[in-house]
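User: Predict the structure for this protein chain, please.
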Amino acid sequence: MNSKPIFLILCGGQGQRLWPITAGQPKQFFSLKSGKTLLELTLQRMLPLVGKFGLVLNLSQVEIAQALLKNNVDIWIAEPFTKNTAPAIAFSVLTLLQNNAEETVVVFAPCDQMILQPDLLLLAINQAVEMAQLNDKIVLLGFESDKLDSSLGYFLPDKNNCIKKFVEKPDFLVVSKLIEQGALANAGIFVGKLVVFYNVLLVTCPDLIAQLQNYQNTDSERALIK
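Assistant: Here is the predicted structure, written as structure tokens:
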């Protein structure tokens, strides 16, 4: 049983959003001017954190990711099909619960962000891990947006830092009003205990959990790649 936090990088994407720049290649595998990919940079800045590191990706992308990251990844989770964030998190939680304690804290982070102040991000993640260890809550990281961006999600915290309102990709007028009220942009980094994620998913999307459990019970392909 593992009590150390698990840091999982969500490595979705099929290479459609930045086409034709990436020539159909998923953006997380596209080499930047630095010579490194977004996926490599994401793992590189997270390595100072204490815990295990994992990758959640489509089965067809495992080989290229393994070639890039070599031995820096402890856990490889291959999704049966590519969907969005919620199914990726749900599938990962069900997979990890097979071999880890329910109280293990897991951090889900996207693979395609550019972070100019990585030290501040690591500090925030460590604080979120501590909060998740002490509370049966999911911690969501946010940031103050320096511009009106309708491509992001925004959440409005109350005086106790609990989210009282969440709006996904609102128009510019709504974004402006939310920011005036103190809303933060969603960083897409979720932190919590495995059992807390499972219980929340069981309440909010029971059909998804049932489908994934049925897949795990009937499919011969192992989700957890050794």
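The longest strand covers residues 184-193.
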